[in-house]
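Methods — Computational structure assignment.
A single polypeptide chain was analysed. Its primary sequence is given first, followed by the predicted tertiary structure written as structure tokens.
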Amino acid sequence: MNSSDPLGVTQRWRLDLAYDGQAFSGFAYQPQHDTVVGQLRATLAKTLRLEHEPLIVGAGRTDAGVHAFNQVVHVDLPVVTKVRSLESERLMTSLNKQLRGRVQILRAEPVESDFHARFSATWREYRYLVLESKPPGLESTNAWAWSVAGPLDLRAMNRAAKNVLGTHDFRAFCRRPTNSSADEPLLRKVLDAHWERLDDEWVMSPRHAPVVRLTIRAQSFCHNMVRCLVSTMVAVGQGDLSVDIVEERLESLSRYQLPQAAPAGGLALIGVGYPESK
């Protein structure tokens, strides 16, 4: 970096994002696919007339179809671009105009150089929506919720959810990362996990349907962890699996008799915590 050249000086920025996951092939950059990071990189380069698309680091990766109401990323941008000096409001307004609603920038601010969207985060929080019935004409899945046969036993589901609290090896509930050993633990610390029935019914369905929501917060998550836990706990709520199944599989590390992961559409990243955040 040449400090005598203002175009060579960079500033780290934090961007908070929201997006509809059904519009993308996931969050992480994939050159041959339309992803959240790919869209944001291209838009930043175009808006600021950068010679190269900037590197973007996110707090966590969401799969295709998974939504975010508050994803956090960081990116290093020139202090002075070929367009103008960077200011928070102008940057946010320019990006949102170019992104046209596909990704919404909720916050844009310069941060210290040691801020890291992924490694500085102390927790991530997801929510999953489940419709408690299958009204005529309503598919079993849609873009925002998973419709299942109800009613669900929420008390049993919350008993199962209590078993994930604390630090556990989640190999039975996660897709193993590529090139990792089958004997390598997937340790994650869950801070909170609970189900609740919402007061408002799901009015986007052909007729109103009861809806329940899982809220789960952890220091970090492994691939498919929330969706695998959801499908298992829904099966508990339907009476198809024992309430002790989560505890048993955490101990055995086996996916034996567990259902496939719940659909992506019901899942959304709703928050990321940092040391200065409550």
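Note: The chain has two domains: 6-110, 123-273.
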